Every structure is written in structure tokens, then in C-alpha cells.
Amino acid sequence: MDETPARLRSQRILQRPEGSIQRTIFKSMGYSDHDLERPLIGIANSWNRVVPGHYNLQLVADYVKQGVLQAGGTPVEFGVIAACDGVGQGNAGMHYILPTRELIANDVELMVQAHQLDAVVLLGSCDKIVPGLLMAAARLDVPAIVVVGGPMEGGCHFDGRPSDLTSITEALGMLKAGNLDPAVYRDLEDQVAPTCGSCSFLGTANTMCCVAEALGMCLPGSATIPATHAARLRSAQAAGRQIVELVHRGISARQIINRRGIENAFRLGTAIGGSTNLALHIPAIAYEADCTDVTLDVLEALSRSTPYVARMNPAASYNVPDFHAAGGVPAVMKEILPLLHADALTVTGRTVAENVSGAAVPDMRIIRSRTDPWSAQGGLAVLRGNLAPRTAVTKPAAIDPRQQVFTGRARCFDSEEAANQAILAGQVQRGEVVVIRYEGPKGGPGMREMYTSMKLLYGRGLALETAVVTDGRFSGTNRGCFVGHISPEAAEGGPLAAVRDGDTITIDIPQRQLQLQVEDQEIQQRLAQWQRPPLRFTRGYLALYARLAESADQGAIIRHRST
Predict the structure, then answer these.
(1) Distance CA 291, CA 495 (A)
(2) H helices within 165-216, ranges in order?
(3) Does 370 map to a domain?
């Protein structure tokens, strides 16, 4: 494993005599000449004590650094922001969550480039952090590996299944409806989330961790190792060794994050019934990898041709640690291997087919075969219609078959807070379609999740009797009839802005239709009288984001290329 210094980016700034000032700066922190002759490996660590999925990353990073040192590299650690969707749910904090994705990608790019690091290990676990890290890897095109913190364990038994963090919100609806004892409700706080880690269900966090592995950017089997297991640390150490190997072999991120890898990643995501946020993050990652032909239509075609083979919470009672025990991502990829680009390169330096050759499915209750799937089609669907001319997104895997064609009366709200207050007050009735608008990337701004609204409807016993449509988005744990990502959004003058209370809306998932049962001429007359609502934020990052963010059908990205 000889390394010629001229091959290392870092040596461009560390060669004597011109690089002596840079060497001096590193030496002021204790680095030696020996350290500075080796590959400088960035450790982009999003550890903090705000996000449970990141709570263990300080320890995980220590093992990554051990692996880097074992393989002959020099670890150089730096911090990355990470925000918690759960803390932001149902309040103003959620405006800020999706916009952090772009800041994370920018942050990693700036640190790696400003210091000419040779490679980077990307540590994260949660909803917008893993996508942001993958975006940075694709943009930088240096050797890179993603290391995640792992899922938390499931909690106490509640409402007929192992509980999770979302159970407390469902319980709030039950409490408000008079169907739950207040003492039981209070006790749930201590029982639904027994360990640190990314939420135990298949929300966006664990979806994106699994997608990162399927993309080839994580070591095989590592995405779902529970946060508290010793195997999590051994895997982190192995990743530290492997990143140095990638430097020696000259394998950079875009050799892995390309059209073939992205298609593999999305197929895996839809084969496990992953979060609808895939429809935001996959196009954003593709944009950074110059795969701009990865559109929602492409993703819809992939979903239609991919069987739904692994079912877990929220579609079933099994949590992600159970999925790991059942074989995890490698087992699913082996099941759907004929549909994948089997020769796609991964961070192991081997192909997808080589990585999964020894995978097995010890528990068929969670993972089924490609020929006997839970459903013949994947878990996501792209809808169109006069209410969503440019697309909307839903998740058939989380919707009861009885609700996949739903017609109801519109009940309109111009913010998430207004909708939640009405639901808690018992003002939303059976047969209504709850319309929540001005929550898109620009209108929100920040495209908040309508997680709380869906959970409150479930808690009040309305999950099978109502639907929600929005230009916002949803958590991966939501269930019930829902359609999000409506494009163009209401704040851009999209048809959603023209809906009035009492209008009839039809959701037809099998036909991929979302229709407002109002004549086109009437819709246009209403829009001609429409006035853009005042901006919710007029200063700070959210004001900037509202001006720059693209619509949901474009991944809510901020474009940074001139072409």
C-alpha cells in the first residue's frame, strides 16, 4: 500500500518549502511530520446532543479514526450541523429542517476543499443529514464513505404493536378524543424511545440510511445495525480502514454515485416501502452527480417495476432492528438483484452482486421473495391531475387498500398550525379531504412535514375516513390517505391555491390521478383573483431559501450551476 505523495491532494499544500506555513498550522495542534505524509482523511461528524440519531456519533467517530490510523491515514475531524425533525414537528422549527440539507452539503464541500483533504468519511443518521452528506460527496467527487449511527430499539407495547417516537403523537389524539388515560399518556414519554439512534420505524432517516447502502456508499449490512450494538463500532472501524483503501485505489464518489447507483438506490427504497421524501432527496443527489435526467417520471417507472418485498413499521409492526435481523439491505438487494445494476461499483471496491452474494433471508415475515412480494409494485407513486399539473407524491405502501380511491369534501387550511388546531378541536369530519397549503419549499418556507396532522387524525379515529393533500411533505411514518409535494405549490399560484371549502377532491392512486372536481374555467377565474400571501420570513436564511429553492418536483434544490 505504498502511496506517492504527489497523488495526494493534501500534498499540494503541504510540500516544503512553500507548504511550511500549512505544516506549521497543523503542527500547532500536535500533528507530526509522520501524520502529514499520510492521506488526510476528513471525518465530517454531525454529532450533537440534540438529535438522538446522532447522540452516539462521537463514539462512532472514535472507531472510524481508529480504522483510518490502522490503515495508514491521518484522521482530521470537523463538525457538521444536524437538526432533529422530531423536535421541529408541529411547530415553527420544522421550517428550518429541509433547508439544513443544502447547508450540510455546502459545509462539507467548503471544509474539504478549503483544506484540500484527500477523502472524507461522512457521519450522520437522520432525515436531511444523510441526503446532505451524499450531495456533498457527489459534488466533491473525492473518495468518500457514509457511516451512520444506526436505529434505536422499539419501545413498549402500545396500540397493538411495539411503540416508537410517533406513538406519543398518536396517543395525543386518543387523549383529546377521551380514549386514553392521562396517566398512561404521561408514562409513554419514558417508554416509547428506550435508546438513542435514528427513529426505530422506517421513516426518512432509516430510509435514507438504507438508500445510502444500496447506492454503494456504506459498507454492506451497516445501515441498519442498531445504534447500541457493538457491531456498530466494528463497522465504523472497518469504514475507517476502507476509506484509506479508496484513496490508494483512486475510487472517488462519482464512480459510485452515478445513474446506475442512483437507480439501484431508488429501487431499494421503493422495495422496502421507504419514505416519500425519497422523491425530494434522490433528485437532489442526482443533481449533484450531474444525473439531471433522473426525474420523478423516471422514479415512478422504477417504482412501478419494482416489487414491494420488505414491510415494516409503519406498514407493519416490525421495526428497523427487526429488519436488520431479517437480513437487512443486502437480503433485499439479493432478492431484487435481477432488477438492479449488479455490476455497479461500491465503496468496498467490489460490485453490488459481489457484496450481496452471501446474503440470506432468515425471517420471511419481513422480507419476501421477488416472486412472492407484499405487492407487485413499489411503495411510492407519482400522481398528476388538475390539482397537481407538475406532479404530487404519495405512498401506496402506507395506505389501506380501501382508501386508495378516495373522494371527499375539501376542508382548507393555509398553515399546518390551523389544520392541527381544527383536528384537535374535533372540527374535521369524516369524508373530508384536509387541504394544507402554503407549506411548500417557497411558501412554507422549508416544506414542513404534515406528520402531526396525520397522527392526530389517526388518534381521533379518522385515519380511514379522511385524507390529507398538501404542498408540504410527510414523515416516513405517516399512514392513512395522503398526497404531498403538490407542484406547483400554492405560493407559486398553483391550483391548490384555488381550492375552496366544500369542493370535491378525488384521489385515485391506481390511476395516478389527483383531481379537483371543478371546471377548468372556474379554477382559472379563482386564480386570476388570487393574491400571493405575505412572506412569513423576511430576514435570515429562510428568507433567502424561499427566494432560491426550486419546487418539490425538482427536489427543492438550490441550483448552483449556470447550465
Answers:
(1) 30
(2) 167-176, 182-188, 204-215
(3) no
Range of the domain at 177: 157-188
| pLDDT band of 4, cuts 50, 70, 90 | very low
Closest CA relative to residue 10, chosen from 135, 67, 138, 31: 31
Instruction: Find all residues with CB under 8 Å of 145, minimum gap 6, and list them.
Output: 121, 122, 217, 218, 219, 239, 242, 243, 246, 347
Of the residues 356, 372, 405, the one at which a domain ends = 356
What digits encode the pLDDT tens for the residues 89-118?
A: 888 999 999 999 999 999 999 999 999 999
The residues annotated as belonging to the active site are: 475
Query: What does the alpha-carbon distance between residue 64 and residue 123 come to, in Å, rounded to a whole number?
Result: 9
Q: Against a cut of 0.90, is the pTM above it?
A: yes
Q: Is residue 24 a part of any domain in this protein? A: no
Same domain, 404 and 473: yes
* Cα torsion 396, 400, 405, 406: sign: negative
Domain identity same for 97 and 219: yes
Task: Convert 270-297 to b/e letters by CB count within 10 Å (16 or more is b).
Answer: bbbbbbbbbbbbbbbbbbbbebeebbbe
Q: How many CB atoms lie within 10 A of CB 337?
A: 17
Q: Cell 411495539, residue?
A: 162
- What's the total number of domains in the chain? 3
Across the chain, mean pLDDT equals: 95
CB atoms within 10 A of CB 341: 19
* Of 306 and 314, the one with more pLDDT: 306
246 & 321 share domain = yes
Q: Return d(Cα 4, Cα 19) in angstroms, integer.
A: 17
Neighbours of 533 (CB within 10 A): 14
